[in-house]
Specification:
It is a single chain. With 190 residues, the protein is of the alpha+beta class. The protein has one domain. 28% of the residues lie in helices and 27% in strands. The strands form two sheets. The chain has a six-stranded antiparallel β-sheet. A two-stranded antiparallel sheet has the order 1-2. A hairpin with a 2-residue loop joins strand 5 and strand 6. Helix 1 runs antiparallel to helix 2 and helix 1 crosses helix 3. The longest helix has 23 residues. This is Lipoprotein.
Length: 190
């Protein structure tokens, strides 16, 4: 089956806008993480899953070239709506739920202090993002990829998860976890 996506001039290249630069950098970092995971596995089945996820990711943000900007993308809409509400050091955890109806969920984790973090949960509904929940985490959320990765099939995540760390509007890291490759993450236990 071949799916053809087309657009009518909604892509912009090399913009100076903070949100637009953030969007492009975030997409590149996430795609690089997916490709890196594919390169690290020797299993042909897992390689095919990562290749599929990269194509699905590009369809999700509705771009072909990672340097393109799509202001109608769900990811773009999240940061365009809320980026100015977040502090200068935070995580975005994308934990989309698959099923008959796919639910787009993003958690933004703000570092309150050394002892606690604030979690903001957003769900994409009716063409826009809505903040649906807010709660505190104690101790503070800390993410180190090597503490969360596990072999395929052993992990707790039923859906793919991406954890992106941002500091001073720069993407520091974006780590993609294929379904069943991530150990339990505390933010979902609330």
């Amino acid at each position: 089956m071949i799916i053809v996506l087309s657009s009518c001039g909604r892509y912009i290249k090399n913009s100076d806008n903070r949100t637009e630069k953030f969007f492009v950098s975030w997409n590149i970092a996430t795609a690089n993480s997916i490709q890196l995971q594919e390169n690290f596995t020797n299993d042909d089945y897992q390689k095919s899953l990562y290749q599929n996820r990269l194509q699905a990711f590009k369809a999700y943000i509705d771009i072909v070239n990672l340097n393109e900007l799509n202001t109608k993308s769900i990811r773009y809409k999240l940061i365009n709506q809320y980026l100015n509400d977040w502090n200068n050091k935070f995580y975005i955890v994308e934990a989309n739920e698959s099923g008959e109806v796919s639910t787009k969920i993003s958690y933004v984790i703000l570092q309150n202090s050394r002892d606690s973090s604030k979690v903001l949960k957003y769900i994409y509904k009716n063409g826009k993002w809505e903040k649906v929940e807010q709660y505190e985490l104690s101790p503070a959320f800390k993410f180190h990829r090597e503490n969360f990765i596990t072999e395929y099939g052993v992990g707790k995540n039923e859906n793919d998860i991406t954890v992106t760390f941002i500091e001073d509007n720069n993407i520091i890291s974006s780590d993609f976890f294929l379904n069943f490759t991530m150990k339990q993450i505390d933010i979902f236990n609330k």
